[in-house]
């Protein structure tokens, strides 16, 4: 029983109970609002920079996961790492995730690589230092999808990228999270915030989708079929999950990239994880046996409290030297 529950313990412990590690400074973000090409907006939270900062330090850009933000546990862990290592750090919010509803009918989705492209291009214009991109879960799939789509031009915007616990095979992961214990633990958690946000969107655009079908959706498959897929130009959930998946595009990536996936991630079936033969020569894989979904809290099963600096440290070593942990 403990073996079966371990992935969930690691996932929930990291998100809800793990503590900061050896850090005393407060995390203070400065928010910038950017107008998008379609006259909408996104909010970008920058880690508070001292006045002497000349924007020549390396900048780490984090693309958050489903219903995430700059306040997510993983974002704050990376912000602490940036503070300790003299890095600039920012979290662009996908549309509607910054605490204020966006203006356009669209929201965001797992394959939103065009939004990634626009954000990174704008950051490149305003930041003199090297830029590195990190995507978590949904954000990581979109980031890898971008890199596969743009090919060799990705290096013009970033020097390296990492995806963390990303459902690179969206179809396999989407089905998996709607089954068994996942259906009772995580599906309600996501729908609890996604449905009210969809209702807000419907208040903006009254004929955008079928309200009754959206409210009656019992899992992400049904919700995406009513809301996410049609709003973003997909015919159905199947079409969305298939076309938005990054896995078929990993062989086209031409920038140093690392895909981190725990084998025991409760959101992602291990059988769907990419093999080295399925990715480009610039892509490395780290698939440890443990970690849960964006867990990796140090000692979370051996002693309490655990801390959340494992992932930032692994990412930092990869960006600095291309190193990937063993095991």
Descriptive report:
The protein has 327 residues and is α/β, with parallel strands linked by helices. The chain is built from 11 helices and 8 strands. The chain has one domain: Alpha/Beta hydrolase fold, catalytic domain (Rossmann fold, 3-Layer(aba) Sandwich), CATH 3.40.50.1820. The radius of gyration is 19 Å and the shape is globular. It starts with a helix and ends in a 6-residue tail after the last helix.
Mean pLDDT: 88
Q: Mind telling me the CATH class?
A: Alpha Beta
CATH topology: Rossmann fold
- First-to-last CA distance: 24 Å
Structural classification: alpha/beta
Spell out the blueprint of helices and strands.
Elements: H1 2-16, E1 29-35, E2 41-47, E3 59-63, H2 73-84, E4 88-92, H3 113-126, E5 131-136, H4 138-150, E6 160-164, H5 170-177, H6 180-185, H7 187-204, H8 211-215, H9 220-231, H10 237-244, E7 257-260, E8 283-286, H11 310-321
Give descriptors for this structure.
single chain; 327 residues; Rossmann fold; eight-stranded mixed β-sheet; 8 strands; disordered N terminus
Compact summary:
This protein is of the alpha/beta class. Helix content is 38%, strand content 13%.
């Amino acid at each position: 029983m403990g073996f079966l529950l371990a992935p969930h313990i690691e996932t929930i412990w990291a998100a809800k109970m793990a503590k900061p590690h050896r850090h005393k400074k407060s995390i203070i973000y400065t928010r910038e609002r950017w107008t998008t090409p379609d006259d909408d907006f996104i909010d970008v939270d920058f880690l508070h920079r001292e006045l002497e900062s000349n924007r020549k330090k390396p900048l780490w850009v984090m693309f958050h996961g489903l219903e995430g933000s700059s306040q997510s546990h993983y974002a704050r862990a990376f912000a602490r790492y940036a503070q300790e290592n003299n890095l600039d750090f920012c979290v662009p919010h996908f549309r509607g995730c910054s605490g204020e509803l966006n203006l356009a009918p669209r929201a965001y989705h797992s394959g939103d690589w065009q939004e990634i492209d626009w954000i990174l291009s704008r950051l490149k214009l305003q930041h003199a230092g090297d830029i590195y991109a990190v995507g978590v879960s949904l954000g990581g799939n979109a980031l890898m999808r971008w890199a596969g789509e743009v090919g060799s031009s990705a290096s013009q915007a970033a020097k390296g990228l990492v995806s963390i616990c990303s459902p690179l095979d969206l179809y396999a992961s989407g089905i998996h999270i709607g089954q068994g214990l996942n259906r009772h633990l995580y599906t309600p958690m996501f729908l609890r915030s996604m449905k009210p946000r969809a209702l807000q969107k419907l208040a903006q655009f009254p004929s955008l989708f079928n309200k009754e079908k959206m409210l009656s959706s019992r899992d992400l498959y049904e919700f995406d079929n009513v809301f996410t897929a049609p709003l973003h130009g997909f015919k159905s959930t199947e079409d969305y999950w298939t076309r938005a998946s990054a896995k078929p595009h990993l062989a086209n990536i031409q920038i140093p990239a690392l895909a981190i996936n725990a084998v025991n991630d409760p959101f992602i079936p291990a059988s769907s994880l990419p093999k080295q033969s399925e990715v480009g020569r610039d892509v490395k894989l780290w698939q440890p046996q443990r970690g849960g979904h964006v867990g990796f809290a140090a000692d979370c099963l051996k002693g309490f409290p655990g801390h959340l600096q494992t992932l930032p440290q692994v990412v930092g070593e990869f960006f600095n030297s291309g190193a990937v942990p063993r095991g």
